[in-house]
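Look over what follows to help learners.
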Amino acid sequence: MQFSRRGPSISAGPQARRRRLGHAALAVAGFVTLAACSQGAAASDDAKPGSGKAPAAKESTARSATVAVSPVVKGGKAIADEQLVVTAKEGKLTSVTVTGPGGQALDGKVSADGATWTSAHDTEYGSTYALKTQLTASDGSKVSRSSTVTTVSKSEIFVGTYNVNTGSTVGVALPVSVVFNKPVHDKAAVERKLGVTSTPAVEGSWSWMKNRDGKDRVDYRPTEYWQPGTKVKFTMDLVGVKNGDLVGTQKREIDFTVGKAVTTTVDVVKKTLTLSENGKTVRTIPVSTGKKGFETWNGTMVVLSKVPTIRMDSSTVGIFGPEAYDLGSVKWDVQLTPSGTYTHAAPWNEGKFGRVNGSHGCIGMSTADANWYFERVNYGDPVTVVKSKDTVATNNGYGDWNVDWAAWKKGSALA
């Protein structure tokens, strides 16, 4: 028996980790100016009521020395889960004290030029912070400011989880994919703030769909597979983007590289798996694919993850009764779909490889061959199954390549 393609996945794909941008870039999200009380030099006699004289420049300078907090996105609230930045306006910061929930201090450091103070740690969601700042005005007078700033709560924002990591190397078939935690009401507004550029440049497009869990998802792919060695930059600047009553807070920039072209073709009639590198066939392996009623998905899938050993139990994919199985620990597993399609070692099917399709949808092979294959494929490599039934769904992993280019482009909210 082999593992079924039906039902939920056993393991998720790689977890996308976010990368922070420099705080100077974050500051452009907006400022809220904070000025409550000040202690500067007293007004001169020339500025006293009834003197008939304009206020001295010294008083004016002291009053103009204020601070601002960034980044701000909604109703004067600051972005949470980021470092807090306090910026001097018309003066220089000498000290900043920030007290958070429970009276806990938020440590930070004033820049060498006195222009900014940046916290050493991230702020919390839905929290209020008390700020006490000391500034030196341009005329040398000392100014104190006290104020508060509140961060947005999780219920006020929407975020996207993406599938690429900075500095990573991926396969030629990997699309850039973003899944949003809440419904996207204005897809065009969001899509305008997503970008993919590459060297060499290629034509590409975003296309919207529902993820398998029902969440809104948008993928970007070129017309054809990426060229090996392509340098790709993915940008997402959702700071301040409105989505109904929600607001975006993410600003990310991810650089990754496309590796060599490792492609796989599985012929369910010949019962073979052929791996090629940069267009040259490396090896053909005898396999056993899905039997009648459990045929392996047709079309192109993309490697989602690799796991040396997992337990394969049919109950996790909804197979019970006469077809139920529990194979225990299965070695050299390459995941192709969240619904449970893998290539893996299937020693219990010895004698069927190259002769009989006897699995519940997976692509099984000998332990030695599975180990060899496991070592040569990577995240983002395409695996194309031919002569089977039922083309894999676009949202079942990355079935993007089974959609023709004209139809793919129509899936853009900007089309």
Observations:
- Residues 55 and 394 are 70 Å apart (CA to CA).
- The first strand starts at residue 32 and ends at 34.
